[in-house]
Structure formats: C-alpha cells, structure tokens
Amino acid sequence: MATKDPTAVERANLLNMAKLSIKGLIESALSFGRTLDSDYPPLQQFFVVMEHCLKHGLKVRKSFLSYNKTIWGPLELVEKLYPEAEEIGASVRDLPGLKTPLGRARAWLRLALMQKKMADYLRCLIIQRELLSEFYEYHALMMEEEGAVIVGLLVGLNVIDANLCVKGEDLDSQVGVIDFSMYLKNEEEIGNKERNVQIAAILDQKNYVEELNRQLNSTVSSLHSRVDSLEKSNTKLIEELAIAKNNIIKLQEENHQLRSENELILMRTRQHLEVTKVDVETELQTYKHSRQGLDEMYDDARRQLRDESQLRQDVENELSVQVGMKHEIELAMKLLEKDIHEKQDTLIGLRQQLEEVKAINIEMYQKLQGSEDGLKEKNEIIARLEEKTNKITTAMRQLEQRLQQAEKAQMEAEDEDEKYAQECLSKSDSLQRQISQKEQQLVQLETDLKIEKEWRQTLQEDLQKEKDVLSHLRHETQKIISLKKEFLNLQDENQQLKRIYHEQEQALQELGSKLCESKLKIDDIKEANKALQGLVWLKDKDATHCKLCEKEFSLSKRKPVRVCDSCHAMLIQRCSSTVP
C-alpha cells in the first residue's frame, strides 16, 4: 500500500468540511427562512472552517519579538487586486475593538459575506499565485485546485442574507474549533427531513418569488432610469430642436438680410461699374481727343523743328559762306596789308628816292599826283572794304544772335516737348493706374461674388445638415415614443406581476394559516384521541339522545355527520344545535 501525501489528505479533508459547512449553512438558512445573525451556529462553524482553509500551508513570518502566522496578509492583498475591496479594508482598520491581525481577518470574512462578494474577492486572490507564494507554501490549499473548488462553492452563499454585528463582538480571542457533531446525521433529523422538504419547497417558492420580484424591481428601476434618461435626452433634444429652429430662423433672417445686402451690393457694383465704364469711356475719349491735339501739336512742333532745322541749315550755309567770305576777306586783307606794307616800303623807297631825288621831284611831280590819286582810290577801296568788313561782322553778330535765339527756341521747344511728353506719360500712367485700380476692383468684386456664392453654398449645406438633424431628431422622437409605449407595456406587465405576486403571497399566507390551523387541529385530535382511548362509536340506532343537552334527535335537531375516528371525535352524539 502506497502512503498518501499528508498535505493532500489535509486539503481533501478541508475541502470536504468546506462542502459540508457550505451545504449545511445554505440548507439551514433556507429552512430558517430569515436573515442570519452572528449567533447562528452553522454560520459560526462556516467561519471556523474558512479560517482553517486560509491557514493551511501559511508561511511563518519572523518579527522582532516572535513568529507571526496570520491570514490577514493575503486578505489585505485583495485591496490591490480588487478596488471595490478597499472599503472593507478601510472599515476593518477603523474598527476600535480589533487589536490582532487574526481579528481583522475574521471581521473581513464577515463583512465580505454580508456584501455577498467573498467568492469574487478570493477568486482574484487565487488567480495571482505569484503574489500568494509570498504568504503560502507550494502545497497549501489556496495554491492548489481545492482552493478554486472552495471559491466555486462560495458562490452559492450569495442566496443567504446575513446581518452580522462586528463592532461589539470579540473576534481577537475566539477559539476556532470545528464542531463535527453538527455534520453527523441523527435519526430524528432523518425523520424530520420529510417535514422540512415541504417547508423547504415553500421557502424555495417564496425565495423564487422574491428573486423574481427583485429582478422585476431591478428591471423596473432600470426601465425607470432608462425612461428618465430618455426623458432627459428627449428634453435635451427638444431644447436642441428649439435652439436649432431658432438658429434656422436666425440663419434664414441672416440669409434674407445677406441676400438683400448682396442685391444692394450688386446694384451698387453695377451702378459703380456703369459709372466707371462711363468715366473710362469719357476718359478714353478725352485721352483720344487730347492725344489727337497732342499729335497735332507734336506735328506742328515737328514742322517747326524742321523749319528751324532748315533755317539753321540755311544759316549754317550762310555762315559757311560768310566764313568763306571772311576767310577770303582776311586773305584779301592780308594781301592788302602785304600790298600796303609793300606800298609803304615803296613809299619809303619813294621818299628815300624823293629825298634822294629832290631834284627829280619836279620831274616826278606829275607822277606823284598820279600816284596820290591812285593812293586815294586805294584808300577809298580800303575804306569801303573796311565798311564791308564791319557790315559782315555785324551780320555775323546778328547771325550768331539769331543762332543763339534759334538754339534757345530749339532748347525751349525740346524742353516743352519733354515736359509735354512727361505730362502725356504721367497722364497715361495715371490713366493706366486708374484702369488697373478699376480692374483690381473688378477682380475684388468677382472674388466677393465667388465668396458669397461659396457662402451661399455653405449655408445651403448647413440648412441641409439641419434638415438631416431634424429628420434624425424626429426619428429619435419616434423611437422615444415607441420606448414609452414599451415602458407602459412593461409597467402593465409589472402591475400584473405585482398582482400575481400579491395573490401568491395571499395564497402563501392562507397556506401558512391553514397549516397552523391543521397543526392545531392535529394537536386537538391527538389530545381527543388520548382522551377517547377505550371509547367506542355508538351505532345510529342506539344514539337517540344528545350527550350534552340530553334532547332527542329529530329533523330540526339532526345527528352530526361522522367523518372518521380521528376527526370530530369530540362531537360524537351531539346535536346540530350544540355543534360549535
């Protein structure tokens, strides 16, 4: 025979004890038929068994003073894994009467049972085996499959309602000993089991009805909350609808205003364009007229320039002629001077000859007179030539003055032409600038028109979106109306179920009252049977008088109907007038 592992045997024993305690607690609680308190023995034994299960395989932790072996450490770890368990941990730490970690662990187990979440908390703890390995050995019950089985069994405790007072209870000094006598079956319990079956069935029906009522209440509350949320959403949607309608009206008004403004802007732009067109046409006409006048003036100036240039060429030709003549005159003058010098030389020679030949003067007197006449003629010619040279010089001066005046007039004409050309260019530039400004205004107006068209398109799209939103809101309102109808139907069904529930409660109350009456009648019958032991039922022939009033039986005073020996035993041979 192979020896079993003692830790496995311990785990199996603890698992069986947990099964028995949980099963016994559920059966006794259902038969008990009300909320359990801390003095209920199966509940106390359940906590003891759970304490032994949690202590199995627990590691010993060394402290400064002693060795510590408590289950509060792994239970305190649940707060980190399950956030809803923080409330239990905080309330356990705030309890004033608890001083030891074991007492806190016992209070934690009681609060978890009252919350009906013990299975959820321990399931979170079992899943994290790496964290549990800090507190338990590898062969501990919480580290093996038995722990998961016990957690699965704890789910059944959610049907139990427990009301435990943890404040005043001394949980630190309690001794956790398992009472096995509670789980051993007696013959009396086997006999009473048949009676408890019916009561258990009635309690099951009651619990089933209560559970149905809870579910219905929860569904009704959820429906109420849903209806409230739907009504709130409906009111919000109605408000949003009203806001959307107001926005649509405002947008329509703004659209009308913008249309009117757009029409006014279009009219103004058209008028402005017409005015600008008329101005441009008039300016173009004036420009054409001015340009024709300028062309005519330019042609006149050109003609004047041509005439002046021709005059200048003529003057230059005359000047060149005069210069040639001047050169010729100068040459002639030079020749004359040479002649004069030569004549002077000759005169000197003649004087010398006269001096030398004074004697011959008389002879040469006639010759001298002739030479003097020639000299006079030559002097006259020289005077004439000098007058001609003076006239030529004055003419040259006049020609130079006329040239200077012509050059000044040409310069002034050129300056006037340049000024006129600059004025024409400035006017043309200003006109081009005005035309470019008008073109820019036209471009801006076209862009404004495009922007307005895009804005209209966006407004139309917004209107379409608002229409879609309105249709969606109408669809949602229809849905809300259908949900209201469903809610009304559910309310009717709830009322019908409440009526059924009240009828069933009345039926249960009547059954309970009938059961109580039947128990009382059974007790009365038992007492009557005890009292009537040894008595015999008389025959109808022999029963002629009533035993109480001692009157004869007749049609008015009839005999009682005999049912059985156990029922109506006290009414034997009594008349109908004395029957209670």
UniProtKB/TrEMBL annotation:
Name listed for the protein in its UniProt record: RUN and FYVE domain containing 2
Residue ranges the record marks as coiled coil: 227-261, 298-514
Keyword match Cell inner membrane: no
Pfam families given in the database record: RUN (PF02759)
TM ranges: none
The entry's keywords: Coiled coil
Domain RUN stretches: 37-169
InterPro entries, sorted: RUFY1-3 (IPR047335), Run_dom (IPR004012), Run_dom_sf (IPR037213), RUN_RUFY2 (IPR047332), Znf_FYVE_PHD (IPR011011), Znf_RING/FYVE/PHD (IPR013083)
Source taxon at top rank: Eukaryota
GO MF term (any one): zinc ion binding
